[in-house]
Amino acid sequence: MAYVCVRGVRHHVVDLGRELPGAPADPVVMLHGLLTGSAASWFFTVAPALARTRRVRLPDWRGHGRSERTPTGYGTAALAADLADLTTDLPPFALVGHSYGAAVAVRFALTRPGRVTRLALVDPPFQPVGAADLGRVFTAATPLGERAAALVGETSLLADLAAEPASPPPTWPPWTACRRWRWPGPTRRSARPWTWSAGPCRAPAATC
Fold first, then answer.
1. I need a surface site. Which of 21, 60, 114, 175 has the fewest CB within 10 A?
2. CATH number for the domain including 18?
């Protein structure tokens, strides 16, 4: 666990694992979603398993987890810029994003393709609910805690969401057959409910 100041903001970052002989060389950076998400979303789920064989980095977005809350800077471009500065010490890495973290992962990969070796998107919000609907949910979100409500009420988060395009840009880099976890469904009984589908992803040769 460490605190890193980038772009004038104090960020909380968790590093796990280490490089092992014969293991994939690229680290994994895992991005959480908005409001109730944090590095803990990955720390208490799949990150420890990945960290058995490689380095894993779990940043808290600004305003989330233990990172500093700022009045502005919650759009995908700003968060992708934060991510760029939070990963300058890493070689090109595999990037995993959940929910809004997936949207940031796409923005980062499109603008910095030479930094991404693999891309995994979990529940990407490319057809999101309206920002106004999201605001009504979370400004009255007593079960979700005061932190989420304050993040909505005291920052430009909703305005930043409203300014985002409704879908990713149409031109995608030539990644192919990205690895991903698959869940067969809660009604199936299986000793191994999660399956890991193989297939390397190739990043384009172009750099920013």
1. 21
2. 3.40.50.1820
Question: Measured between alpha carbons, how far is 176 from 181 in angstroms, rounded to an integer?
Answer: 16
Q: Per-10-residue mean pLDDT for the chain, 208 residues long?
A: 89 87 81 89 91 92 91 91 95 92 89 89 68 49 57 78 64 45 39 38 34
Distance separating alpha carbons of residues 169 and 115, to the nearest angstrom: 19
* pTM, entire model: 0.71
The total number of residues shown for the chain amounts to 208
Task: Give the pLDDT of residue 22.
Answer: 66
Q: Exposed, middle or buried, 15 (CB in 10 Å: 0-12/13-18/19+)?
A: middle
User: % helix / strand / coil in the chain, to the nearest 5?
Assistant: 30, 20, 50
Distance CA 156, CA 153 (A): 8
Which residues neighbour 12 within 8 Å (Cβ) at sequence distance 6 or greater?
1, 2, 3, 39, 59, 60, 65, 66, 67
> Which spans in the chain are helix H?
40-43, 47-50, 76-86, 100-111, 131-139, 146-154, 157-162
Residue 102 lies in a domain: yes
Look at residue 146 and tell me if it is in a domain.
no
* Order of strands, sheet of 93-98, starting from the edge strand that comes earlier in the sequence: 2-6, 9-16, 56-59, 28-31, 93-98, 116-122
Instruction: Give the structural domain span for 29.
Output: 2-129
